[in-house]
């Protein structure tokens, strides 16, 4: 389990996260969704110890983060790809496999490339890859050591619909042995998660199983939940102004 307790984070005078407490349960896919700029990536980075936070604490696998041992159990796919453009796809995979201490077999490299449908393109230089191919290679690298914790920041951007479905099937398969946290802007993907955390106004405005959230807000899609939340925020702001 991953646990965030009372995390707050500001950049200069701008508060991005305020007193966030949340638990990300094991063997489930948790979706972190919210409008652009609400702090999803910042929260993920705080969770992994890549970003410092002002107050609060984080634990993964019952260890306080940052913790080197636990970091080895995490597969992370960032929004921007960190790939070596003058190496081939396969060479990138081999480089990261080596970084994991050479415990990853050639067979495993090939099966992971196959999973993201890059087998045919593995000997092409990454500088000649399309955006979607780079995303798939980044995903393959995050999956390479079959991590117990998989944190994916918008993993399916630029990936075509058929492969996207395929990747979601694989993610559901992976959760048997892993805990997944995924950010997405795509609402039909949000519905494929087991649990959702809806970020708005520096915090988690709603959480629960997707269907549960729809029922609570009595709406038919998640976009409408955000509209409702925004409406409530405006109401509260006007009330505060009236009370001043
Ligand atoms: N290192 C930084 N220094 C200053 N401000 C930052 C830094 N990193 C993020 N921010 C600001 O924090 C806010 C939240 O950014 P973040 O990337 O966490 O949002 P997000 O919800 O992941 O957005 P998106 O959905 O567009 O990826 C933004 O206003 C961003 O400009």
TrEMBL record:
InterPro entries: AAA+_ATPase, ABC_transporter-like_ATP-bd, ABC_transporter-like_CS, P-loop_NTPase. SUPFAM superfamilies: P-loop containing nucleoside triphosphate hydrolases. One of its GO terms (molecular function) is ATP hydrolysis activity. Keywords: ATP-binding, Nucleotide-binding. The keyword Zinc does not apply. Residues 2-226 form the ABC transporter domain. Pfam families: ABC_tran (PF00005). PANTHER family: ABC TRANSPORTER G FAMILY MEMBER 20 ISOFORM X1 (PTHR43038:SF3), ATP-BINDING CASSETTE, SUB-FAMILY H, MEMBER 1 (PTHR43038). This is ABC transporter ATP-binding protein. It comes from Salicibibacter cibi. The lineage of its organism: Bacteria, Bacillati, Bacillota, Bacilli, Bacillales.
């Amino acid at each position: 389990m991953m646990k965030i307790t009372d995390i707050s984070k500001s950049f200069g005078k701008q508060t991005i996260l305020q007193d966030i407490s949340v638990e990300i349960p094991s063997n489930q896919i948790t979706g972190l969704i919210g409008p652009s700029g609400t702090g999803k990536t910042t929260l993920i980075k705080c969770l992994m110890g890549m970003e410092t936070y002002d107050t609060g604490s984080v634990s993964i696998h019952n260890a306080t983060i940052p913790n080197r041992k636990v970091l080895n159990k995490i597969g992370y796919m960032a929004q921007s790809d960190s790939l070596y453009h003058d190496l081939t796809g396969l060479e990138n995979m081999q480089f990261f496999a080596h970084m994991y201490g050479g415990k990853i077999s050639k067979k495993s490299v090939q099966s992971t490339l196959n999973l993201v449908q890059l087998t045919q393109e593995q000997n092409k230089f990454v500088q000649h890859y399309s955006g979607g191919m780079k995303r798939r290679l980044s995903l393959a690298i995050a999956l390479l050591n079959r991590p117990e914790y998989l944190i994916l920041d918008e993993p399916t951007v630029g990936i075509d619909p058929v492969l996207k479905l395929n990747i979601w099937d694989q993610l559901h398969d992976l959760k048997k042995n892993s805990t997944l946290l995924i950010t997405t802007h795509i609402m039909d993907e949000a519905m494929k998660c087991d649990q959702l955390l809806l970020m708005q106004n520096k915090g988690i405005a709603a959480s629960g199983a997707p269907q549960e959230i729809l029922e609570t807000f009595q709406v038919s899609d998640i976009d409408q939940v955000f509209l409702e939340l925004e409406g409530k925020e405006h109401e509260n702001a006007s009330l505060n102004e009236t009370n001043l």
